Amino acid sequence: MITLSKRLETALAHLKGADLLADIGTDHAYLPIMAVKAGFAKRAIAVDNKEKPLTIAKKNIREAGLANKVDTILSDGFSNIDQKIDVVSILGMGGIQISEILNNAKSRDWKRLVLSPNSEARNLRDWLENNGFRIVEEDFVIDKRKHYQIIVAESGTMLLDDLEKEFGPLIIKERSKEFVNYIDTLIRKLDHALENAKQDSQKHKITTRIAKLKGLIE
Ligand SMILES: C[S@@+](CC[C@H](N)C(=O)[O-])C[C@H]1O[C@@H](n2cnc3c(N)ncnc32)[C@H](O)[C@@H]1O
Fold first, then answer.
1. 214 CB within 6 A, ligand 1
2. For residue 53, how far is its CA from the centre of ligand 1 (angstroms)?
3. Per-residue pLDDT tens digits for 21-47
4. Which CATH architecture fits 6-174?
């Protein structure tokens, strides 16, 4: 039986209504399996650019009894995918890598993107803004003491400032307890760095950053 982590469980809820889901960088294929099992996706393809994860993905799909509804494809991003995908999930990669995968897709005719960059979220939101997407939902998740941002985007326009690109416009707006605690921890680390800073330019940089972060949660 598959038990999803809090991060994957949160992402799963955003996959509702998919005709054909493509989970790029699927690894174990937990997300497409559970999306089809929950009835959120009619069919899914589990995509990875390495043989080894796909072998495990195939085994998990077989054991879930979903071999007729979840296919596996060995592919670098979308390069070997010919089907019309309406919902795309890409989780657990850096934001620059996710942006490159999206940028290299032959078609961008997607209904929804569900993305979770494990770094460089700013670059990913920048790509979305510059490529005709707007953020419609976001989550800030703490899972096993690590923090994750989940970004749901659809076609449209948006204009984000620097902090919104880094932390997420809807995450900032929601100000969840988890997010406030996370920003608080960042501020405390910077306070400590400020005490040890020697040069004025360094002190100025840290002070400015602290003020910006405080502005997010006060
Ligand atoms: C850290 S795992 C994340 C697995 C899963 N998405 C999750 O979040 O739990 C990243 C997976 O992406 C795959 N991957 C990396 N670059 C890729 C690419 N360009 N195209 C397809 N898969 C890729 C890796 O082989 C690996 O299995």
1. no
2. 9
3. 999 999 999 999 999 999 999 999 999
4. 3-Layer(aba) Sandwich (3.40)
Q: Is the CB of 49 under 6 A from ligand 1?
A: yes
At 60, give phi and psi (nearest 5°).
Answer: -65, -40
* Per-domain residue ranges of the chain: 6-174, 180-217
Q: What is the pLDDT of residues 125-139, one digit of tens each?
A: 999 999 999 999 999
CB of 54 shorter than 6 A to ligand 1: no
- φ and ψ at residue 94, rounded to 5 degrees: -70, 155
* Closest residue to atom 12 of ligand 1, CA basis: 25
What is the arithmetic mean of pLDDT over 49-56?
Answer: 98
Cα(72) to ligand 1 centroid in Å equals 13
- Give tens-digit pLDDT for 140-194: 999 999 999 999 999 999 999 999 999 999 999 999 999 999 999 999 999 999 9
